[in-house]
Amino acid sequence: MSLSLSSNAFSIRPTKYEALRRRFSSQFISPIQVSSSTRAFSVSHVYSPSIFKFGRERLNPITASAAAAAETSPSSFRNKTPKDINVLVVGSTGYIGKFVVRELVKRGFNAIAVARERSGIRGRNSKDETLNDLKEANVCFSDVTDLETLEKSVEGLGCDIDVVVSCLASRSGGVKDSWKIDYEATRNSLLAGRKFGAVHFVLLSAICVQKPLLEFQRAKLKFEAELVKEAEEDDKFTYSIVRPTAFFKSLGGQVELVKDGKPYVMFGDGKLCACKPISEPDLASFIADCVLSEDKINQILPIGGPGKALTPLEQGEILFRLLGKEPKFLKVPIEIMDFAIGVLDFLVKIFPGLEDAAEFGKIGRYYAAESMLILDPETGEYSSDQTPSYGKDTLEEFFEKVLREGMAGQELGEQTII
Ligand SMILES: NC(=O)c1ccc[n+]([C@@H]2O[C@H](COP(=O)([O-])OP(=O)(O)OC[C@H]3O[C@@H](n4cnc5c(N)ncnc54)[C@H](OP(=O)(O)O)[C@@H]3O)[C@@H](O)[C@H]2O)c1
């Protein structure tokens, strides 16, 4: 079944939707990334004698003893040298997770990357490709969606865990998958980490949770609340919750189209939503800082990239300037999305299977209208000035790279909508 409300404006057919999302992606800070082939590994399917399997070489042998974990004080792991600090990374095969693993390895930590046997968008990467992507880290193939399996995998490592870093996210943003990954699987990683000594948890969340209208935001917030509670109940445990603004991949969807002579498409006057985009390496560096920095303990940390906030209109202007072309904008009324969402909300009452389609419509509407900046609760206004900046990579440099090399490696993912 498909529903097209406009020739190029909205469709719930997966392919059309993908095209639309790309087209409007300057305004879709899209969490819409799905693996339609999610597989849970049964214990018998995984490797013996232990459930995990390290990468080709154990470059960073794990030496700490589990017994030591019991005596861990809040900051004792911070006194160790990085090579003796065991950091379990879940969501290690994602857009940001991969960079986080690389950054942790670069800083000398003993990074243990948890991955699925088939990782990446639609499970496109084999084990060997995953091992290659995460080279120099220890790779533990497991299933974060199953607590028992994950605990056995961590037990099989034969060492304590000092810190858990989660870059997990639903690849679809669909209702059930969001709860399964952004809440349950992330919680599993906390529980498994805690069982084996983890005293610090770094969570990659999102700045948009400050105005939660979507299921994945509610799922993230529920986990954030549990993380905070854990630290309140155990003063040996700490957390850092990182809430970034837009990623570069979410803003590059129109670069190649504009290069091919198409207009830059934006909602309303092009000023409805602004963000301070941050690159994968810069965000990974910030997340890695959270492992040791005492000033990031028990904090919620909104973070954007360098420079001032950019509206879609300004992003389009940058693009036309780089191309040396006269700006050509297509302004789409935001009401089009409201109409489409209204229709989907009505249909979902008759066809519950359209639940995710309706949610994707809401996600699109959200990112077309809401800025990815600090929201002042008193004024209800988004503030560029209050949104912290970090790093050095600019969106302009990213656009230049995409113009040169295309969007390879910046895939948003794929969603199964119906
Ligand atoms: N896009 C933006 O502009 C933006 C802005 C701010 C914040 N954020 C937030 O940043 C976070 C990470 O984003 P990202 O783009 O790095 O995510 P991503 O590329 O979609 O990566 C998601 C990670 O979670 C894992 N995962 C998903 N479903 C799984 C399952 N069923 N079982 C096991 N593992 C599963 C994936 O593993 P596989 O490789 O095996 O699938 C992957 O490692 C999200 O929380 C997002 O909301 C995004």
TrEMBL record:
Pathway membership: Porphyrin-containing compound metabolism; chlorophyll biosynthesis
One GO cellular component term: chloroplast
InterPro entries: DVR-like, NAD(P)-bd_dom, NAD(P)-bd_dom_sf
MF-aspect GO terms: 3,8-divinyl protochlorophyllide a 8-vinyl-reductase (NADPH) activity
GO process annotations (BP): chlorophyll biosynthetic process
Compartment(s) of residence: Plastid, Chloroplast
CDD domains: SDR_a5
Keyword NAD: no
All residue ranges annotated as the NAD(P)-binding domain in the record: 91-291
EC code: 1.3.1.75
Keywords recorded for this protein, A-Z: Chlorophyll biosynthesis, Chloroplast, NADP, Oxidoreductase, Plastid, Transit peptide
Reactions that this protein is recorded to catalyse: protochlorophyllide a + NADP(+) = 3,8-divinyl protochlorophyllide a + NADPH + H(+)
Gene transcribed to yield this protein: LOC115753669
Presence of keyword Chloroplast: yes
Superkingdom of the source species: Eukaryota
Protein name: Divinyl chlorophyllide a 8-vinyl-reductase, chloroplastic
